[in-house]
Structures are given as C-alpha cells and as structure tokens.
Amino acid sequence: MNIRKTLYFLILLSFLQFILNCPLFAKDKRKIELTLEKVSQLALINNLDIQITKYDAYIKCNNIYDAISIFDSILNASISYEDDQLQRTSTLGATKSKTTDYGIDLSKKTRTGTTIGVGFDHTRGWSDSAYSASNPSHESQATVSVKQEVGKNFFGLIDRTDVKVTKLDIENSGYTSLDKIESYLADAQKAYWNVILSREKVEIREEMLDRALSLYKIYKQKVKMGLAENPDLYAAEANMNIRKNQLLISQNNLRMAENDLLLKLNLEDRDEIEIVIDEEMSVAQTQEQLFLESLRMAIDNRRDYKKAINDVEAKKLNLVMKENNLWPEIDLEASFVRNGVAQQFKDAARGITASDNPKYYFGINFKYPLENSEAKGQFKSAEFDKAKALVLLKKKEREVVVEVHDSVGTVNTTLENARNNYTIVQLQEAKLKEEEKRFKLGRSDSD
Question: How many other C-beta atoms are found inside a 10 Å radius of the C-beta of residue 17?
Fold first, then answer.
C-alpha cells in the first residue's frame, strides 16, 4: 500500500513539474535592450567598483575642511565656582570666601595671519572678612586683542599656501578617481562587445554545424548509391561531431560573457533576464589618426600629465613654505581692556562703558632656534623635491609623445588589418561557393 502511495506521489510530482515547465505556464524573462550608450549609463550608475571609487573621491574632497579649519571662528565659554573655607595663618584674613567666575570669548584667525579676539569676563566674590570694601563684589571686564605674525608665517603665508597645496592634492586625487572610473567603464564596454562577438561566434558555429550535417547526409546517400566509400562517410561524421563540440563551447562562452556583462552592470537574477542587443559587428569606419592632432588631444586631456603639472606646482608652494620656516617667530600683540566694579552685576557691567579706566598692552614676542637645523633640513629636502618633480614632468612629457606615436601607429595598423581581413572574408566566401558548385559536380572533395 505504501509503495502504491509513493508511486502516485511521484506521478503527481512529475505532472506538476511538466505543467510548470510548459511554455504556457513558464514565467517570461525580463528583456533588457542594451546599446553601448545604455551600457555606459548603467555602469556609471550601478557598477560597484565605480561607486566605491566615487566615495573615495568624496572622502578625499573633505580634506579641504581640515586645511581651512585654521581660519574657523573659535568660541570659548567657562564657568567656575569656588567655596574656600581653609584655615588661615592670619586672623585678619577671611575664614570663608565664595567666588564665581563667568567668561566667554570669540577669536578668529584671518588669511593675513592676524588673530582677532574679543572677550567678556565677570567675577562675583563674597567673603566674611571685615576688611572687604564691597561684599559681595562684582567685577566685569571686556577685552579686545590683536596678534599679528610678521616672521614665520609672514602675514599668513604658510596658512594660505597650505590650503593651495591641499586643493592641488584633491585635484590630483580626482584625476586618479576618474582614471579608475574610466577603466571600470571600459571593462563594462568590453564585456558588452564580448557578448556581441560571442553571439557572432555562436551563429557561425551553428552555420558550420548545419553545413557539416548536410555534408554528412550527402555522403551517407552517396555510400548507399555506391558513389562514395566509407572513409569519406566517417570523415564527414567526425567533422559533424567536431562542429557540435565547437558549438557547445561557443554557447558556453556566450553564457559566460553575458554573466560577466550583468556582473559589471550589477544586474541580478541572471535566469530571469534576457539580454537583447540590436547591434552587429561591422568593419570599423574609423578614419586614420593624425599624430599631431592626437598629441594635442593628449596634452589637453591626459590626467597623468595634469597630475605631473600639479605636482610641480605643489612642490614650488612647499618650497615657499619651507623657506619661510627659516625665519624667526615674531608676533606683534596688542590688547585693550576696560572693567567695572560694583556690588551688583548690572552696575559692574555698566561700569565698563561708564567709567574711564582702560588698560592698554603692546608687546613683541621673538623666538628663534640658533642652529635652526630642522628648518634648514626641510628647506633642502623641499629644493630636491621640486627638482625631482620637474624631472618627472619632463619624463611624463616624453612618455606622452612616445605613447601617442605608438598608439596612432597601432590604431592605423589595426584599422588597415581589419579592412584587409574583411576583403579576405569576402574572397573566402566566394571560394566556398565555387567549391560547393564543384562538389556537386564531383570535382571537389569533403575538405
């Protein structure tokens, strides 16, 4: 009984599988019509390597914020409270005091190397000392300060130059990212042309198999009629099987080429996608390339050459900074302070402007290492870096000229070769037709 149930279940399962595989119930594949332009668009949007490269470029661009952060406005605020009840060595002093401090200040460094600051501080004090003139007491103080660098970082020279070097570095990084994106895009385009080529090969193998099958049938008929011998029939049958194997290999290569294209376009569900390509292989219509015109285009567009130029400019700017570091640090400082003292906060704050009690300060700070070994070493290294960058630029110029010359020659040779091959194909087709006529008349063999 169990065997009968199992048999019924297997029959039912086979029937359901047949129904689901029936063309009437089969799920239609989603067709994707592709052209070279659409493949390029999909690759730029979907390709994962291109997306990663884009994020690398975005991350690198944020380095500019680190460079310009030196010019950010800085806000400082503080508040403190102190309750002092320590024992004193003198009986005249207070045995208990309380102090509260509030402070806020804003500073900013300009591109001329000038640091400007404004601030406001308030102190509230209370003590149990009998000698306190005002208890509690409030003191408010407003400060304006200016600091100017006139030696090292002369009027902001290093700060501004550092920003320029960072911009050049970001620009070079952008060139590198574009090179990578261009390479990944080219890979997608090559995969697209590989699919077209693989389909052409499959069509050729199918046609060759059809011809081999026809030849085999002809020899089979001739053997029956006594017009051919068995060795010719065996050769025709072997040829037919060879063509079958070649067709199987070409079909497998086509599936691999389509999978590779879908991978580079980041398209999923391979079994539910049918690639439709409305494009055929044809003889290239490209015109022969001219060396001077190609060289001019290379100079205008090659990113590695632009990077070499930027490297030279960056090394020049770095040399300027290192030369400035040989100078001593000389800072001019000035500040203006006014305050107010009273028993109430508002009276102390009002006293800043009401009372005529200013405080002025002017000063010069000087600092210089006598040997200055570090700065001298960095300056010498910067000189060598600049000289090296100039040599690398000259080398890149020579490489561009040679590569363009070789590429122009390769393109023109390949173009001429393609045209000659097209002529060869036409001649071979004509020869094949004539051989087929001779074969029908018995004047040609199976080869």
Answer: 10
